[in-house]
Specification:
The protein contains three helices and no strands. It is rod-shaped.
Length: 104
């Protein structure tokens, strides 16, 4: 039994540098992963908090355009009435011209 222990000790002693390097590398990777996770969490919490507390306020304006609409409608009605009146005058003038032409 003691010879087995001696052989095991010799193997460990021979591979001790490799084992120590592997353990250091594993510790470094675990620490690095923990730091990256912590940075990601802090960044996520900060960004979420920033979005929550500093919401962009949009200003909305409402305009009552009833006066402009009424004005434009009255303009269109006036224009339509003038066009209709001109059309009636033209029709009367044509009727008079046709009557004169028939009587001649």
């Amino acid at each position: 039994m003691s010879q087995e222990k001696v052989d095991r000790y010799k193997k460990q002693k021979a591979n001790r540098d490799k084992i120590i390097k592997r353990e250091k590398r594993e510790k470094f990777i675990v620490k690095l992963a923990g730091i990256l996770i912590a940075i990601a969490l802090v960044g996520w919490v900060g960004f979420s908090g920033y979005k929550q507390f500093y919401k962009e306020t949009s200003k909305t304006y409402s305009i009552d355009t009833a006066a402009v609409d009424n004005y434009l409608n009255s303009m269109y009605e006036t224009e339509a009435a003038e066009t209709e009146a001109e059309g009636n005058e033209a029709a009367e003038t044509e009727a008079v011209t046709e009557t004169e032409a028939v009587t001649e």
